[in-house]
Design goal:
Largest sheet: 4 strands, antiparallel
Strand order of the largest sheet: 1-8-6-3
Number of helices: 0
Shape: globular
Strand content: over 45%
Keywords: Biotin
Pfam families: Biotin_lipoyl
Protein name: Biotin carboxyl carrier protein
CATH architecture: Beta Barrel
CATH superfamily: RNA polymerase II/Efflux pump adaptor protein, barrel-sandwich hybrid domain
InterPro entries: Biotin_Carboxyl_Carrier/Decarb, Biotin_lipoyl, Single_hybrid_motif
Number of domains: 1
CATH topology: OB fold (Dihydrolipoamide Acetyltransferase, E2P)
Number of strands: 8
Radius of gyration: 11 Å
Distance between the termini: 7 Å
């Protein structure tokens, strides 16, 4: 089964985590909301499946390319 890795696209902080491992998600569901330069940036999944791993916590600062989650 294919796995989607979701990475941060920019330096940002994790404002809100909306899922946990085991959560079933559909295409376009928001996994986390990042904050950068006072803007909220939803991070969406591009495939339906189950969140296998969540690599971030609220308040954490991410660098571009950091792994946020995997969906299987």
């Amino acid at each position: 089964m294919a796995v989607e890795e979701i990475h941060a696209e920019m330096v940002s902080s994790v404002w809100k985590v909306l899922v946990e491992p085991g959560t079933e998600v559909a295409v376009g569901d928001t996994l986390v909301i990042l904050e950068s330069m006072k803007m909220e940036i939803p991070v969406l999944t591009e495939r339906a499946g189950t969140v296998r791993e969540l690599h971030v916590t609220e308040g954490e600062v991410l660098q571009e390319g950091d792994l946020i989650a995997t969906v299987e």
